[in-house]
Amino acid sequence: MKVLILGAGGHGQVVADMIAAGARAGDEVLELAGFLDDDPTLLGTEVDGAPVLGSLASVGGLTADAFVVAIGRNSARARIDGWLQASGRTVVSICHPRASVSRTVAIGDGTMVSAGAIVITGARIGRGVILNTGCTVDHHSRVGDYAHIAPGAHLGGEVSVGACSLVGIGAVVLPRCRIGAGCTIGAGAVVIGDVPDGATAVGVPARLLPSSSSHGVKSQLVVER
């Protein structure tokens, strides 16, 4: 299966490395056809040995079996993936051969599971999610569409992470906590209670930043001592 990567930056290069390492989409062996990127200085160059064939808008004139949206920003990834779906393009999930994913896990299209990631029994992963290097998603957790679980972050059992949320590098979310949609959990934070939609939580234990606590939603987070 020939794949075009949308985005030739750091995230796109990670995906290219996954393909070189033997990553598959389901049972399909992947072959990198090239990149698309809106940086005009990259056009006609090679990134990690693969050509940058045009801008994102040029996708309609190129032939590939499938596409991977390698954009780190959640909102941009959601927008571009929606555009590809509307145009009838096939967007595939990609899983590094050194990731560990239970056979009982459900993963939506367009999701990336990086090296060292572990996803345990009964987890449900949405569309366009990034499960980054060395993160863990424990049993029966739910990760919403276009969320990003950053390197080394850990979700306990039965955790829920809403759409387009970011769980930062090294953060820990205790079992059965709910993180709403559009949230940001800071690097190294320890979440011990629910986080409302749109909030930012940082620290140990995690606390809401003042600008994100004006939603009129009571949080169960313990204020940092």
In short:
The chain is 11% helix and 29% strand. The protein is built from two helices and 26 strands. The N and C termini lie far apart (53 Å).
Nearest-integer average pLDDT: 90
CATH topology of the largest domain: UDP N-Acetylglucosamine Acyltransferase, domain 1
The CATH H-level homologous superfamily of the largest domain: Hexapeptide repeat proteins
Known CATH architecture of the largest domain = 3 Solenoid
Helical segment count: 2
Question: Into how many domains do the coordinates divide?
Answer: 2
What is the ordering of alpha helices and beta strands?
EHEEEEEEHEEEEEEEEEEEEEEEEEEE
Tell me the major beta sheet: 8 strands, mixed
Top CATH class of the largest domain: Mainly Beta
- Termini separation: 53 Å
Low-confidence parts:
213-225
Overall helicity: 10-25%
